[in-house]
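Supplementary notes for students who missed Thursday's class. We covered one full example, reproduced here. Read the sequence, then the structure, then the short commentary at the end.
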Amino acid sequence: RISAIFVPIVTTLAIATYIFWRYTNGATIARSIEIAVAVLVIACPCALGLATPVALLVASGRGAQRGIVLRKPSALENAKEITDVVLDKTGTLTTGVMKVAHATIVPEAASVLGSSWNTIATERKILESAASIESMNSHPIAEAIVRFAKIERPLSVTDFQITPGAGAAGRVNLSTDQVTQSAIVIIGSPAAVAHSSMAFHPKIAKAIADAELEGLSVSVLAWEGVAVAVFAVGDSIKTDAQSTVSVLHSRGINVWLLTGDHKDVALNTAHSVGIHENHVIAEATPEAKIEHIKKLRSEGKRVLMIGDGVNDAAALAAADLSMAIGTGTDTAIATADITLTNPALKSITDALDLSKRTLGTIRGNLAWALVYNVIGIPIAALGYLQPMYGAAAMALSSLFVVTNSLRIK
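Structure (token representation):
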């Protein structure tokens, strides 16, 4: 934008300088051309042209060294006025290394399907069916259930599908030596499974309630619409989560927790890291996450979304600026503007600091280039500067801009 105005003005000034010296001051053609060329040379907008791209290039390299990978350098400019940071929970605020804290398996619940299921519904078969479905799912909770089940060979699964924010399902071959049988197996959040299953067995309902009181994430396994197991899964909060949230608050940035987990789990996590309960959105589907991002933006907020899962991808795309944790899914990483290869949450504030320093350097570069031209052009136009010295000054100006950009850390 600056060059589009600057170049025509300088060209006009050079022509005007020639006309003044040749026809008003009576200088020779050679002298008039020499002075006009000096104006063009001293004003050559190399420093202006280098001011922004060199700073962004250096910032990209410095960021990569610290685990901040920019998909596009313009992301740094988008980070300058962030007012709200929206965080996912699992894998973002927490380590994402989930463990099954409690598993409640209720084989007798399957008896409502008929007497033929009595020989099939064993604890081992239920664990095998859960692990077979979850082995095809990349979510951290799914991986925890697979590790807990410790199966050697998954059962055959067909018609597999994942519903982001709800769970996974597929038809699993449950056959034994005595019975040939397959079933639609669903594993996901209690609300999602309850929507497509019979009323929960009392043991199942109690296990869900107990796990939620402990602040654990709950997955329910259902066979043919009958819940037969509950897996209570938890992980640890990242060591720097509380300090990072505190730093963001100190900068006047609102911090939100947006998660598909149960409300009690979300509130427990938010309390641990210092996020106000009014800024917690729990049991959020991918669509609900998008709506919340859009709502904040409609209120004039500049929103930074940080996540790591498939169900975060749409919300990442809807935000003004997005960051994906490098240990997350390929979908989230491909969608985000910035990838944080360092799982520590401090990388968030590092990225915002890098943006601030880069934009400050760009402004300094532009200011220097403009001041240099404001001083240099009149000197050249008055005939006090030969083109050769103007070229040297122009080169020094560019060198200053590049050197100043290299100071970004």
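Commentary. The longest helix spans residues 346-381. DSSP finds 16 helices and 13 strands in the chain. If anything here is unclear, bring it to office hours.
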